[in-house]
Amino acid sequence: MTAMKILVCMKQIIDPEVPVRDFRIDEARRQAERGSASLVTNIFCENALETALQFREANPEVKITALSYGAASAEESLRKALAMKADSAALVLNQEREHPDPLTVARVLAAAAGKLGPFDMVLVGRESGDWGSGQTGALLAEELGVPCVAFVDKIERVGAKLRVKRQTDSGSEVLEVEPPVVLTITNDEHNVPRIPKIRDVMMSGRQPLTKLSANDLGLDAAALGGGNGYYEVVKLSIPQKDSKCEFVTGDTLDQQVERLAERLKELAGPA
Amino acid sequence: MNDIVVGLFASSGFDKAAQGLTGEGRRLADLGGGKLCVIIVGSGGGTLVAEAAAVADVVLQADQPELAEYQPETYLAALAELCRQQRVQVVLLASDTYSQEIAARLAHRLGGSAVGDGSEVTLDGEMVRVTRQVYGGKAQAVVELRRSPAVAWLRARSFAPATPSGAPGEIRRVTVELPAVRSRIVERLRDESGTAKLEDARVIVSGGRGIGGAEAFTTELRPLADQLGAQLGASRAACDAGWVPATWQVGQTGKKVAPELYLAIALSGSSQHMAGVSEAKNIVAINTDPEAPIFKYCRFGLVADYRKAVPLLRAKLG
Fold it and tell me: What is the b/e burial string over B239-273, where b = at least 16 CB atoms within 10 angstroms of the residue's CB?
């Protein structure tokens, strides 16, 4: 196998760590209000880039391209990817809908992968911290006509094949895959995104960055789901919590725990 | 085109997810006047086929040798082929690893739309809407699926099972033509730390960042869990710190659980975490901080240091 090419898809989102008390939504537009929150790269996308970087450390001939489909500000996510030492970066500017559905995103990413590639591996985060549809990787695999493995946290090369470890409900699994393939990446203790060096952050600002539009990729309104669409968010709300916590009372901790124990026995039923 | 398909894997048996999924499938089929078809992929499954037939109109069992165990590409191909043979409006799947892995791909192959992590499904003629949490559990969205069929993976354990009535449905063993595949599961490693069935647990004792280390999970939380007949869970912070295995994690990006009782200890209750316990019947917390968000979700609470409270609690439960 010749030098492998990896595409890592990065999504910029409103910082998901914004506390509940500061979180507001615009019900009419059915989206979150940004407020004073910062924009960050979705964490699983950074885990994906880190996983790719570690794969390149073991296989130095590998080339990594970071790709984003988003607003002009998504360039920040790509500059950070370059600072983390992705080899190149490309932004497909979203001039269509602010929150495109997952099929639209998959079609744009597939078209961009075709133009910038071909790639042996396409890595995406398992889900995003905003809408969290968890579908981009799966739909992208179908658009590209390649296999997909979800919840991967480690990739090794064995000859012409890849050996990927992924997390399951009950433990983990190892899969052997012949590229090309789409992998969705989850977090693990060994793919925590690296902190870029200051020098690399400075340099990343001057590196070339390919900018494309959906038009450049030959995609028209129909391909972007303009007419029928995939799905539509018809209502967005903040659920009201009606639960009223009853704090157990008592003069001493012992008495409080006594009451708590009674409640727990009732709620837990016979062990 | 108003039939409902429920897709199950034989390896899980008739677990709580399969019960909830067939229950919801039955409800939707009756609502829309269609049939409920349960597709079971894989061999074995114990009473699964009979249990499914008790509530479904048709059960299709695809258990040829190549489908004995889950492989992403073959199971996807089998489900897609069998769905194509139905007049299907909605396909329901559970939220396990495998269902999540193939659900959106199945929708794509059927020319439909997918939506995941659903907690409610509504049927309004042709229109299928699914309610799900978004923004890490901070908000809730109703999603309208615009292509047919609608493929939804659900928090299946929190849906009500169906009550069998009338004659059991027809059971058919089917064989599917399978493609050559380029990916294969070659090793399956089970986490043997004892929480394999966290999703099915009636009682869960969960520890957060405030536990402070791996040791207290063993010396304090484990004995307490045993006394309550509970499984152990943890917040992302506790898992990320390496105190407990990642498979213990409850939350938006971990397990989605639905116990009768969720006892949260030294766990602040971020929205990310609470997104994993929104189906819990009763939440009880022990935390030093009376302002901790966890108490907003609680039925009962105790403001105390768990290091003092848990030993006392164990003595009282003893």
Answer: bbbebbbbbbbbbbbbbbbbbebbbbbbbbbbbbb
Q: Among A88, A83, A41, A42, which residue's Cα sits nearest to residue A195?
A: A83
Distance of CA A21 to the CA centre of its chain: 25
Please tell me whether the peptide bond between B149 and the residue prior to it is cis, using omega within 30 degrees of 0: yes
Q: Are strands B170-173 and A210-213 parallel, antiparallel or unpaired?
A: unpaired
H/E stretch holding A200:
helix A198-204
Q: Map residue B128 onto helix, strand or coil.
A: strand
Give the integer Cα–Cα distance in Å for A38 and A226. 29
By CB atoms closer than 10 A (0-12, 13-18, 19+), residue A47 is buried
pLDDT in tens, A196-230: 999 999 999 999 999 999 889 998 877 776 556 89
| Chain A residues 66-105 within an 8 A CB cutoff of chain B | 102-103
Spatial distance between the Cα atoms of A55 and B80, rounded to a whole number of angstroms = 33
- Mutual angle of helices B97-109 and A136-144, in 10-degree steps: 50
CB contact under 8 A, B146 and A243: no
Which segments of chain B does DSSP mark as H helices, in order?
16-32, 48-55, 72-84, 97-109, 214-216, 222-228, 236-240, 271-274, 306-317
State ipTM.
Answer: 0.93
Tens digit of each residue's pLDDT (9 = 90 or more) over A67-106: 999 999 999 999 999 999 999 999 999 987 888 999 999 9
Strand pairing partners for A122? A7, A182
Contact B113 A230 (CB under 8 A): yes
Closest C-alpha among A239, A263, A246 to residue B278: A239
- Mutate which of A20, A44, A181, A244 to disrupt the B interface (most B C-beta within 10 Å)? A20
B282 touches chain A (CB under 8 A): yes
- The pTM of this model reads 0.91
| Residue A113 parent element (H or E) | helix A102-116
Chain B partners within 8 Å of A191 (Cβ):
none
Residue B109 has its nearest CB partner, among A103, A142, A186, at A142
Query: Using CB atoms and an 8 Å cut-off, which of residues 194-223 of chain A contact chain B?
Result: none
